[in-house]
Amino acid sequence: MNDVDLFGVPPRKPWYSPSRLKLFLDCPRRYEFQVVQKLPTAPSPNLDLGANVHAALRDWLRLLPKDRTWDRLLEFYRAAWRANRPAFARRSREELREWGEQGKDMLRRFADEVAPDLAPVAIEKNVNADYGDVVVGGRVDRVDALPDGSLKVVDYKTGKFPKYPARLKEEDLAAPVYARATSALFAGAPVVEVELHYLATGERLSFPIDDVWQAHKDLAVVSLAHRVTEAEQAREFPAQPSKLCAWCDFRARCPEGKAFLDASPDAR
């Protein structure tokens, strides 16, 4: 294969996000519907809540520390909800209020616990890790500089703390991507930790980063990215029925998923 086209421009490398890789791992058929065919998914209250909490924290942390009052954070949060609430177009105002209060509780906890002098070096920054023939990237919520010059990546979570944290840490694909990509963004400065901060409870899940762990995880990321690339080139996306079919937006289009749910009432 040529490394450049007729005009001397290198071809674009396949790009994936950790969430897209996870989507393919869960079910290639769903990946086809959502990513390849770009079929729409149903609006979700959880997605609205997550987006609006993230937006409020982004805008609040961009203020000078002396200006980070609770009133300003609440102002940003309310503005986010006014601009983004597609899942509530057909829901009651009471439902909207209940979901809004959940986020307000998360923000209150964060504001009470955060260091008053916190000065992130990056907030909601797009980052990419180049693995040679594929690129994997996403958006990191926050990057903090540690006293020794190393970096810490913080990823906010508005969902529940995992029931099995050790399993999540073993299966997670985002942490190694964010560690490698953030280091590249900051001219090779080492990322020594990726932290998942669960805002509802204040619990945290930490991924200490070292060379051995990074190399092991890089192999997993690249291997999966190659599988996705091969599936896209072959246009082969087999269904992978599981209990996740019950929440899939495309189950009506998938005979295998429908058959699985019909045969497994407990999975519904």
Q: What does this 3D model show about the protein?
A:
Strands 1, 2, 3, 4, 5 and 6 form a six-stranded mixed β-sheet that branches. Among the domains are: 45-113, no CATH class; 120-234, Lambda Exonuclease, Chain A. With 268 residues, it is an alpha/beta fold. A hairpin with a 5-residue loop joins strand 3 (135-145) and strand 4. The longest helix has 24 residues, at 211-234. It is built from nine helices and six strands. Helix 3 crosses helix 4, helix 3 runs parallel beside helix 5 and helix 4 runs antiparallel to helix 5. Mean pLDDT is 94; it is low at 1-7.
Summarize the structure.
With 268 residues, the chain is α/β, with parallel strands linked by helices. It is 46% helix and 16% strand.
What labels describe this entry?
alpha/beta, Lambda Exonuclease, Chain A, 9 helices, 46% helix, globular, disordered N terminus
